Each structure stands twice: as structure tokens, then as C-alpha cells.
């Protein structure tokens, strides 16, 4: 039995008629939006309290320069799990009956009963990647191998022009194209970040120095190194260190794990702490003054940059097990250390110049391989959006202003909207990149886009009241001053 939903039967559109929405990038955020948009193009059995709903229809297209969907392929380490429950899939927290849910994926590949008996709340990261890939391979309106080159506003037609290049599997250009759309959504995600002192090492191939995003691609070479150093105290650094520790012989581990943070600290995972990843907190955070928001985000690092407690426990258990017969494993874990400079020794080794912040002490560490678990930064889109520069409004730090409905604040002459996904931490808080808010944000965007409420959203989502005045969701998200309802019959 195949429970993969069939695509809607009527996908035809006159070439001269613009799309309602063009998505740029197909990561989990825009894949969630595409899945929920597809739900609007299907008859819906019921939306709220037993009320029926007809298909309300939006015409969309999503473009991705990669040839296929891939989610952090270099970190799909055996046994690594998500830090959010499986209900934080692409759709379930706003539309649990969607055919694109994780549970329906399991049903389609006849794995629902094994999952049921596994009693697993946090699924394997590789399983989440396979689920998203399943959605991407069956969902309509996704165009891989399409690189978006430019986005412009055409004031004469009141439309966005999206130029793209279609690229073949061999990387050669196959065609150039242009799409017109009433609205655009950016979901280009993040890219690996390498601190300035370490950048020269990555560019020189003699000694293996890789970002953790590429860890699995180079794992065998890293394991073959006599001494390995992992830099970074987040979840990725912990998972890489644990994987290396398990793979190297007892007593001859020869691993250093360095971190700038004052401790290898656990992620905040208390039930009330998790309420910082609710729509209630997003609304509270967005209403704060810019200066207050900018001060809050760095202080909240442990909400999203700490280490899962189970991973910390696994690391300690592995270290403890290696000490059972006397002696200590040859593994050094040192927090509170920053890399001042770095260079190469005899072309095949790396020398790290370290400083311990609390002690004020400095030292050198020579190593044969380095894994940089130094995080990610928002992918730059300035060149692609250069045509919109005259219309985009910025804050005092020269960042784009983003309204509560995840739209760039544009000049009033622009009647369309540019939505952003996973690029609004400075306006929406630490939950912006969190998978648990992806479906809610996608539904909010579609509600705003349509001017209706095809996806009813809860008015309250947390027991915590953030601030002295509770700000509830509007009756119909999307009835802001810049809303342009969809116009049919172009």
C-alpha cells in the first residue's frame, strides 16, 4: 500500500499569469511552507470544530540551487537525534491531518508499528532527513537545480520579477528563466561560520581542517590523524567529539575539545524554559525595543546553543568506561579557551595559539586535524536582493526591519510582500531557526498571504505570561496594514 499523497490533478497555469508566491531556497522552513500551501490546493475535510473547508488555492513555486533536498548531511552521525520531538515536523503542529506529516511518512513506508513500539519522542537526525526528502520528492511545485539570481520589484506591473538559472546535474547552465509573483519568501538558511583566526587553515588543504558541517565527508581522514582537536561547545561539537572518542582506541584517544564558553553546558530543556519557543514568546519578543532585543539574544545562548543532556551523559559514560581499569583516557576537555591565532607547522600540522580567558594564560597546541564546530551564520542575500535595496527599510544596526508577520518592511509603494524564514532572530528571537516553530510560521505566512485564516492558529500557547500585558494573536493573522489579498483572474 502506498500512502504517499497524489499531487493535485489541476496544476496548469497560463504562462502570463503570475504566481501568488515564489519561495527561494528549499530547506525545512520553505519545505514546511510548500507542504502547507499544497494543503490549500486540496479539498479539506474540516478545519475547526468539525467545520468543513474547500480548497482555497494558492499558486506557488519554490526554487533551490542544489540538485536535491539535503539537510546537514555532514552531521547525520549514526545515533544522533533531533533536539525537538517528532511532532515538530513540517506540518503537524498546525495541521496534524496533513498527508505530509511524519506519521504519514512512517505509514507510507510501513514503519508506523516499529516506531510505535520504539516509544521514541526524539527521532534520529538521519530519519528526519529521510522524511523531508520523501516530502520533497513527492510534493509538487518544487524546482531543484534552479539558482535564483535576482529579485526585483516591477512598479508598472505591481509584481516581483524573479530571475533564475537552471543548472544540470553536471553543474552546467541549461536555461535562464524569469518568474513573476505577487509575493516572495526567502528561505535560504544559514552557512557554516569560520572565525577569522581559523580561516587561513580551511583554505590550505595540507592538514585536515574542516567545519563540522562537512564532518562525515572527511571522517576517515580525521580518524586517521594522530591527534585531533574539536573546537566548539555546542551540540555539533559534542556529537563530533563523542563519535571520535568512540572510534579511537582506549588509552590512545589523543583528542582535545576546546570551547570559548565557560563550561560544556547543557541546553535549557525545562518545560517552562521551552516556552521561549512558543508563538507567545515570539510576539512578546517582537514588541520589545530593538536595544532590548539585541541585548537579550546573546544572553539566551543556552536556550539553543547548549548541549543535549543525553549527549553530555553519553560523553561522560564513555570517558568513565575507559577509566574502569585504571588510568585516564587521553582526552582533554577545556572550556573557557579562545583561539587567538593559528598557523601551520611543517605544512602537515596545525598550531593553535590559545588563551584562557579567566586565567589570562596563553599556550600553544600542535595538532594533526581540526574540526570546527563553530556554528552558522545567516546566508548573505545582498547580491540577490540588490534590486530591492531602495525599498527595504532598515533598523539602526542596518539590518532589515521585519514585521510581526515575518515580512520585510518595505516602502509603501510596494504592494507585494517579501517574507523571511530563519533570518529574523534579531526581530523574532531565538525561536526563529527552531524546527518546532516552522509549521506555525509557515501557517502564519499563508494566513497573511491569503487575507483569510485557512490555518486557524491558537491564541495562547504558553503557561508563562511574558510581560505585564499579554499580547494575543490577532483574530486573522495577516490583517496588517501591508496586506494585499490574493487577486484571481489575472
What this model shows, in words?
The chain has 490 residues and is α/β, with parallel strands linked by helices. Strand 12 (228-231), helix 7 and strand 13 (255-258) form a beta-alpha-beta unit. It is built from 12 helices and 20 strands. The strands form 6 sheets. A 5-stranded parallel β-sheet has the order 5-4-1-9-20, with helices on one face. A 5-stranded parallel β-sheet has the order 11-18-12-13-14, covered by helices on one side. Strands 6-7-8 form a 3-stranded antiparallel β-sheet, with no helix packed on it. The chain has helices at 28-40, 102-108, 112-118, 125-138, 199-203, 219-224, 235-247, 279-286, 290-299, 309-321, 425-428, 438-450; strands at residues 21-24, 44-48, 51-53, 60-64, 142-144, 146-154, 159-167, 173-181, 183-186, 190-192, 209-211, 228-231, 255-258, 331-334, 337-345, 349-356, 361-367, 369-372, 376-378, 417-420.
* Biggest sheet architecture: 5 strands, parallel
Strand order of the largest sheet: 5-4-1-9-20
Q: Supply Rg.
A: 24 Å
Mean pLDDT: 90
Structural class: alpha/beta
Task: State the share of residues found in helices, binned by percent.
Answer: 10-25%
Termini separation comes to 41 Å
How much strand?
A: 15-25%
Number of helices: 12
CA-based shape: globular
Count of β-strands: 20
pLDDT < 50 runs, ≥5 residues = 46-53, 477-490
Layout: helices, strands, pairs:
Layout: E1 21-24, H1 28-40, E2 44-48, E3 51-53, E4 60-64, H2 102-108, H3 112-118, H4 125-138, E5 142-144, E6 146-154, E7 159-167, E8 173-181, E9 183-186, E10 190-192, H5 199-203, E11 209-211, H6 219-224, E12 228-231, H7 235-247, E13 255-258, H8 279-286, H9 290-299, H10 309-321, E14 331-334, E15 337-345, E16 349-356, E17 361-367, E18 369-372, E19 376-378, E20 417-420, H11 425-428, H12 438-450
Parallel strand pairs: 1-4, 1-9, 4-5, 9-20, 11-18, 12-13, 12-18, 13-14
Antiparallel strand pairs: 2-3, 6-7, 7-8, 10-19, 15-16, 16-17
Helix pairs in contact: 1-12, 7-10
Amino acid at each position: 500500500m502506498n500512502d504517499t499523497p497524489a499531487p493535485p490533478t489541476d496544476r496548469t497555469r497560463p504562462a502570463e499569469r503570475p504566481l501568488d508566491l515564489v519561495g527561494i531556497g528549499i530547506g525545512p522552513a520553505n519545505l514546511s511552507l510548500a507542504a502547507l500551501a499544497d494543503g490549500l490546493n486540496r479539498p479539506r475535510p474540516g478545519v475547526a470544530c468539525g467545520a468543513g473547508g474547500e480548497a482555497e488555492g494558492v499558486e506557488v513555486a519554490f526554487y533551490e540551487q542544489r540538485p536535491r533536498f539535503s539537510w546537514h548531511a555532514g552531521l547525520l552521525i549514526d545515533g544522533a537525534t533531533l533536539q525537538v520531538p517528532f511532532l515538530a515536523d513540517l506540518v503537524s503542529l498546525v495541521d496534524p491531518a496533513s498527508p505530509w506529516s511524519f506519521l504519514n511518512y512512517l505509514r507510507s513506508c510501513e514503519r508506523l508499528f516499529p516506531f510505535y513500539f520504539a516509544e521514541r519522542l526524539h527521532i534520529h537526525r538521519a530519519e528526519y532527513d529521510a522524511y523531508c526528502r520523501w516530502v520533497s520528492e513527492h510534493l509538487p511545485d518544487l524546482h531543484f537545480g534552479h539558482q535564483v539570481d535576482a529579485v526585483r520589484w516591477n512598479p508598472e506591473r505591481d509584481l516581483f520579477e524573479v530571475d533564475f538559472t537552471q543548472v544540470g546535474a553536471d553543474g552546467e547552465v541549461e536555461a535562464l528563466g524569469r518568474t513573476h509573483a505577487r509575493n516572495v519568501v526567502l528561505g535560504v538558511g544559514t552557512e557554516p561560520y569560520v572565525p577569522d583566526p581559523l580561516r587561513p587553515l580551511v583554505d590550505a588543504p595540507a592538514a585536515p581542517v574542516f567545519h563540522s558541517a562537512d564532518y562525515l565527508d572527511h571522517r576517515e581522514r580525521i580518524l586517521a590523524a594522530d591527534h585531533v582537536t574539536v573546537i566548539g561547545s555546542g551540540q555539533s561539537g559534542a556529537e563530533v567529539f563523542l563519535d571520535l572518542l568512540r572510534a579511537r582506541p582506549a588509552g590512545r584517544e589523543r583528542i582535545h575539545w576546546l570551547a570559548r564558553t565557560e563550561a560544556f553546558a547543557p541546553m535549557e530543556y525545562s518545560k517552562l524554559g521551552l516556552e521561549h519557543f512558543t508563538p507567545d514568546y515570539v510576539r512578546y519578543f517582537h514588541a520589545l525595543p530593538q536595544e532590548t532585543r539585541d541585548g537579550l539574544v546573546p544572553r539566551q545562548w543556552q536556550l539553543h546553543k547548549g548541549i543535549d543532556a543525553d549527549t553530555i551523559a553519553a560523553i561522560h559514560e564513555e570517558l568513565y568506561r575507559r577509566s574502569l581499569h585504571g588510568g585516564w583516557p587521553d582526552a582533554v576537555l577545556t572550556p573557557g579557551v579562545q583561539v587567538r591565532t593559528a598557523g601551520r607547522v611543517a605544512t602537515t600540522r596545525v598550531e593553535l595559539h590559545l588563551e584562557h580567558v579567566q586565567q589570562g594564560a596563553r599556550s600553544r597546541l600542535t595538532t594533526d586535524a581540526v574540526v570546527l564546530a563553530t556554528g552558522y551564520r545567516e546566508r548573505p542575500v545582498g547580491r540577490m536582493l540588490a534590486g530591492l535595496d531602495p525599498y527595504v527599510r532598515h533598523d539602526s544596526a542596518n539590518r532589515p526591519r521585519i514585521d510581526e508577520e515575518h515580512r520585510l518592511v518595505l516602502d509603501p509603494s510596494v504592494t507585494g510582500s517579501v517574507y523571511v524564514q530563519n533570518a529574523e532572530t534579531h526581530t523574532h528571537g531565538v525561536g526563529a531557526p527552531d524546527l518546532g516553530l516552522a509549521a506555525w510560521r509557515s501557517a502564519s505566512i499563508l494566513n497573511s498571504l491569503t487575507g483569510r485564516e485557512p490555518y486557524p492558529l491558537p491564541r495562547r500557547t504558553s503557561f508563562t505570561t511574558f510581560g505585564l500585558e499579554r499580547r494575543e494573536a490577532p483574530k486573522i493573522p495577516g490583517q496588517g496594514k501591508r496586506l494585499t489579498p490574493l487577486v484571481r483572474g489575472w
